[in-house]
Every structure is written in structure tokens, then in C-alpha cells.
């Protein structure tokens, strides 16, 4: 049996750093804000897409980031020796996870209960949302005194709502087959009408419970009243905090691992790669792009299939001619969580090409190009693994099983950049509560840092098209 590294202080502290990140990131808006703050704290400069963004205005050796819709973010560090036409080393991730979103008219009630109407977002394992303490978070557009409408993020960090199951006494078949109607049997309970104060009863709002609007306003601060709330996008999430688990703390129990796990690792690897002045001699630009809307197909103004990343790369290139030659000297890693083998369902996995927790980052391979990894990418990532000593493993889906996909194929097709799919192994993907290995965070940070630091060298030595 091969022994993998013992849990070190660095490995554990990276996992603890992730716990902080995910616990303060209940929505893609919070993910983006937390990433922006992280990049700011490492000297990155914010750039508006509304302003000119050309190579002459930016400085080699400096780092920048661009945000779209406050839910997608592209950060980049320009190598000291970069010039238009040179390559980009890119890691792409997604900021969103399956969830339940408040409907535009969310007010519901029945039998004295206040309920809220929710719409499913993405392909969640919805039964896992029953009997869980759920919190509410998202973005609120608030009209300020001067008439401007601005976005404020809100996180009501307490167990606010719950979707209860039906007692076993009233449904003896529940253990054999738990199925439910998403529209009629999946409405969260917000409270009891009998508890409403006189003021709450007298306030009228046809779209949402006035008590809920008052709570949102008070969470946003004393300068916000329910009347100044223009609109919002609010989602539910697991109230319970992410934490370490298992007898040796070898597990991470957490919501939203897919894909905050790799979004976290990608951002940390970019910063980690800047140490030891390695950017000074780099002829490439290092990019981490984190997109909203992967869970619903990536087609939106800020999804991976939008022009967000493309336009940034084009503008950094200065001319279309430089852009096209850059694309052919670039490489993209699509970093999204991967499936670890599940001991209770091992027959669902291919018997040789399966991945295990805490054994390193998983390269996802699919002959039908649901994942982009090919021999070119393998040569690059194997080199990064050798240099960083970070373990890697491979995953192939069974021939008789359906296969997921990622933003990798879309980005590869849109840009023509050779692309590879990888991610940390996990269980319960798309459940309200997922799990992964504690050590794999640091393994992936080391692996991806080595990719950033050594890509220009690898690009020269791995000759596919010349
Ligand atoms: Zn994902």
C-alpha cells in the first residue's frame, strides 16, 4: 500500500482556510466578493470592464482583476517578460452550486404556517434538503437617499427556514422509496402566522412576507428600510458550518464543495505561484477565471459560455492577430470537483480508473470529450506533479454509466486553447451537504502553482503543433 503524506500543519491549515472561505460564501455574490478581497489583499488592482483595457495601460509584473455581475471574476498576473502574442496559463472554475431560489412572489401560507415559494437552481439532490436548518443569503438592490440603486450582499446567518419530512407514521413507505412533488411538497416553512406582530400584519406586500422584508432590511443596516428594497436574488443554504470530520480529521464535511473547492484552490494557487519572484521571468499571463451559472449550462452574460473571459484575453492581446497566436501558445485547466469512489456503491465505478480521497487531484478523462483531458494535457500536468510532488490520479466513467461534464469543453471550443479537466475527489456531489478529503486542498494548490510557475517552460518543450 502506497503511503501518502501524513497530515502536516500546512495541509491542515489550508483545509481550515477553505472552511473559512466556504462558511463566508453562501452565494456566488459572496464567493466573488471574497475572492476580490483576497486578490486586493495581495496587491491586485481592480479594473472596470467599462474602461479601456489594453496592454499599453497595464504593467508587466503586476496583477489585476475584473468582475462581471458581481458573480463572475477573472484575475490575472502579467509576467515580467510578457508581450502581446505570448501565451496565457489559465485555470477556470465556477462560483455557483445547486440551490433553491426565492420566487419573484415568494409569499405562501397554509394551515397557519408562513411559507416561501422556491425554485430549484441546477441539478441538486433535492431530498437532501429536507429536515435541514436552512439560512438565506444573496444580493439585494437597495435605493439610496440620492436615488442610486446599489447592490448589497446579505447573509442571514441563522437557521431561518426548514422543509420538514412527513412522519414515518403517516407514510410507511418512506424508507423504501422517498419521492416528493417539487412544487407542492417542497415549500420551506418560515414561521407561524399567529406569531406576527400587529405591525407585521398591517403591512401589506403582495410579493413577499412583510416580516421577511423587514428582516432583510434590518440585516442590511439601519439605513435600509423594506421600502428601499428594489429587488433581490436570494437563495437558501445549509446553515450548519463546514468542518473537519472523520477519526483523524481526514474528511471535510461541507456545503457547496462543488465548486467552491476548486475555486478556492485555483485562487490560492495563483497567489502561491507569485512567491519567489517567479513572475519576473514569466513570458505568460497567469489567469484564474471563476464563472457563475455552470450548474445551469453556462449560457448567460457572465457564464463560461459568455464573452467574459474571451473579451479579457482579446483586450489584453491588443490585436486580433496577437490574440489568435496567443491562443495557440496557451493552456487552460478546467478545475471542477471530481467523483471519489463510494464504498457502498463501488459497482457504480469503473474498476481500475477510479479516484480516492486524500490521494491527490483527479484528471478526468472521457473519450467522447465530455472532459477535455488528452495526452498533451497529461504531459503538462504530469510534469507539474513531478515538480511539485503533488499526487495525481485518473478517473474514467463506466461505459454503462452517464457522465457529467464541465466548462472545459465549452471554453476549449470557444477559444481553441488546449484544455484539461481536473478536480479534487469528493462524495455526495450536488447534495445540500457534501464531503471531500482534507489533504486534497493543499495537494491541488501545490499542483496548480507548479503549473503556473512552469507553464512557459513546458510550452516550449512539449511540441504538438509548431
Ligand atoms: Zn461543478
TrEMBL record:
Gene3D superfamilies: Aminopeptidase i, Domain 2 (2.30.250.10), Zn peptidases (3.40.630.10). One of its GO terms (biological process) is protein folding. Its EC number is 3.4.11.21. CDD domains: M18_DAP. Transmembrane segments: none annotated. Its cofactor is Zn(2+). Coiled coil: none annotated. One of its GO terms (molecular function) is metalloaminopeptidase activity. Keywords: Aminopeptidase, Hydrolase, Metal-binding, Metalloprotease, Protease, Zinc. Pfam families: Peptidase_M18 (PF02127). It catalyses: Release of an N-terminal aspartate or glutamate from a peptide, with a preference for aspartate. GO terms for cellular component: fungal-type vacuole lumen. PANTHER family: ASPARTYL AMINOPEPTIDASE (PTHR28570). Belongs to the peptidase M18 family. This is aspartyl aminopeptidase. The lineage of its organism: Eukaryota, Fungi, Dikarya, Ascomycota, Taphrinomycotina.
Amino acid at each position: 500500500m502506497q503511503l501518502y503524506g501524513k497530515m502536516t500543519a500546512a495541509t491542515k491549515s489550508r483545509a481550515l482556510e477553505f472552511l473559512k472561505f466556504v462558511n463566508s460564501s453562501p452565494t456566488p455574490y459572496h464567493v466573488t466578493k471574497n475572492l476580490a478581497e483576497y486578490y486586493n489583499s495581495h496587491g491586485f488592482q481592480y479594473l472596470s470592464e467599462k474602461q479601456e483595457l489594453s496592454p499599453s495601460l497595464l504593467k508587466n509584473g503586476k496583477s489585476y482583476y475584473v468582475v462581471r455581475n458581481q458573480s463572475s471574476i477573472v484575475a490575472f498576473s502579467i509576467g515580467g517578460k510578457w508581450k502581446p502574442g505570448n501565451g496565457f496559463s489559465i485555470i477556470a472554475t465556477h462560483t455557483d452550486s445547486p440551490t433553491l431560489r426565492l420566487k419573484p412572489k415568494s409569499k405562501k401560507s397554509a394551515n397557519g404556517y408562513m411559507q416561501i415559494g422556491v425554485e430549484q437552481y441546477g441539478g441538486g439532490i433535492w431530498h437532501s434538503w429536507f429536515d435541514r436548518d436552512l439560512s438565506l443569503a444573496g444580493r439585494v438592490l437597495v435605493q439610496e437617499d440620492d436615488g442610486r440603486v446599489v447592490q448589497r450582499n446579505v447573509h442571514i446567518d441563522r437557521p431561518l427556514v426548514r422543509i420538514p419530512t412527513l412522519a414515518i407514521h403517516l407514510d410507511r413507505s418512506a424508507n423504501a422509496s422517498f419521492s416528493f412533488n417539487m412544487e407542492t411538497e417542497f415549500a420551506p416553512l418560515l414561521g407561524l402566522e399567529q406569531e406576527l406582530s400587529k405591525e407585521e400584519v398591517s403591512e401589506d406586500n403582495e410579493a413577499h412576507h412583510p416580516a421577511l422584508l423587514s428582516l432583510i432590511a434590518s440585516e442590511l443596516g439601519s439605513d435600509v428600510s423594506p421600502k428601499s428594497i428594489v429587488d433581490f436574488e436570494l437563495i437558501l443554504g445549509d446553515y450548519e458550518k463546514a468542518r473537519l470530520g472523520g477519526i483523524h480529521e481526514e474528511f471535510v464535511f461541507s456545503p457547496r464543495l462543488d465548486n467552491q473547492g476548486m475555486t478556492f484552490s485555483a485562487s490560492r494557487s495563483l497567489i502561491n505561484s507569485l512567491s519567489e519572484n517567479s513572475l519576473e521571468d514569466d513570458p505568460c499571463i497567469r489567469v484564474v477565471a471563476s464563472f457563475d451559472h455552470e450548474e445551469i449550462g453556462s449560457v448567460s452574460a457572465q457564464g463560461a459560455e459568455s464573452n467574459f473571459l474571451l473579451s479579457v484575453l482579446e483586450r489584453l492581446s491588443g490585436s486580433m492577430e496577437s490574440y489568435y497566436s496567443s491562443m495557440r501558445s496557451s493552456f487552460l485547466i478546467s478545475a471542477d470537483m471530481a467523483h471519489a469512489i463510494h464504498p457502498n456503491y463501488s459497482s457504480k465505478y469503473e474498476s481500475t480508473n477510479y479516484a480516492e480521497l486524500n490521494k491527490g487531484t483527479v484528471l478526468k478523462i472521457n473519450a467522447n470529450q465530455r472532459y477535455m483531458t488528452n495526452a498533451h494535457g497529461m504531459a503538462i500536468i504530469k510534469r507539474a506533479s513531478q515538480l511539485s510532488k503533488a499526487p495525481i490520479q485518473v478517473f474514467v466513467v463506466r461505459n454503462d454509466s452517464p457522465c457529467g461534464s464541465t466548462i472545459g469543453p465549452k471554453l476549449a471550443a470557444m477559444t481553441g486553447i488546449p484544455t484539461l479537466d481536473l478536480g479534487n475527489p469528493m462524495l455526495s456531489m450536488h447534495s445540500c451537504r457534501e464531503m471531500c478529503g482534507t489533504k486534497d486542498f493543499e495537494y491541488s494548490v501545490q499542483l496548480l502553482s507548479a503549473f503556473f510557475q512552469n507553464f512557459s517552460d513546458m510550452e516550449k518543450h512539449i511540441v504538438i503543433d509548431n
